[in-house]
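Data card: per-record layout.
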Amino acid sequence: MVTVNLGMLHYVLDHVYGAFMHRTKLSPPFFSRGWGGTKLDLLEKMIRELFPDAAGQNWPPALIQPIWRTVWETRTACLREGVFKTPCDEQILSALPPESHTARVAFLVPKSVPPQKLACVVHLAGTGDHTFERRLRLGGPLLKENIATMVLESPFYGQRRPLLQRGAKLLCVSDLLLLGRATIEEARSLLYWLESEEGFGKMGVCGLSMGGVHAAMVGSLHPTPVATLPFLSPHSAVVAFCEGILKHGTAWEVLREDLQAQSATMTLEEVRERMRNVLSLTDVTRFPIPKNPEAVIFVAATDDGYIPKHSVLELQKAWPGSEVRWVTGGHVSSFILHNGEFRRAIVDGLSRLQWKEDPL
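The structure for this 360-residue chain is written out next.
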């Protein structure tokens, strides 16, 4: 009985936090400027071209050349920050806000260990994660396991946030697809750089919430096996914006008016159906199975008010060989309390990969 009450408490905490963040007028809702017009049409067309034919899954990542500066250095570790031009093609680049054209990363590496004996995990941002700090704290203790941490600042976030955007509240629906597409390209290029330029022996990609969806996509589309570690993540953005708490923080009336300007009168349910249709493009179960599904570990929460259990299980079912681990708690409490479980999943996922052969 105590467990049930605790579970309910975690679930209620998610809803209280969600109500404070998304139902109060303290910040604007998501998509306060509508669908995004021709940008959305372009993105829908580009993403649909990837499915159902998975031939595009092995398109080679673009080579990047980050420019680095050292933030601090000790006897055992070094933290550098780098910038590089986003490797997206011209169509995506022209749709991205100018502030997002330059990618920013933080790179925390153990010293005195040759790179071929090191692993590195690229950490992708969850909703509202504008800085490097939380993900560096997650990765920091892994230095002693010879695991480096590469933290990518998302497009539309941090120093890459458009001038008119408040916090994490994306202005248009097209921005969500743009953010995802650019993050995937940048993360794949970082993994390729770590392997081909730096010579790391193993690679992984992880993320929390929205970052976990992107991590799953990157793991699916990367041409070589990587440990893929989605934490507290749904199988699709449909779950977050149409089923979970974020539906209360979405500008449905604005979206309805935007659609009605283009066509006939629409009900709110028809608007939500249009949203489901657009966001179905983010459904990871439609993506190819990763090269090494045994190195995929999902960590999910038992009482998550944002991500229902069925969503996590759909991903596991789509990727046979992958593992789901459950932590007790809700979305918010697990985000705070279960970093140890996230680190354990990173270590275990990487342990299921072969070390890259040393070049002769």
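Known properties of this structure: Residues 188 and 222 are 6 Å apart (CA to CA). The chain has one domain: 6-352.

See the next section for split statistics.
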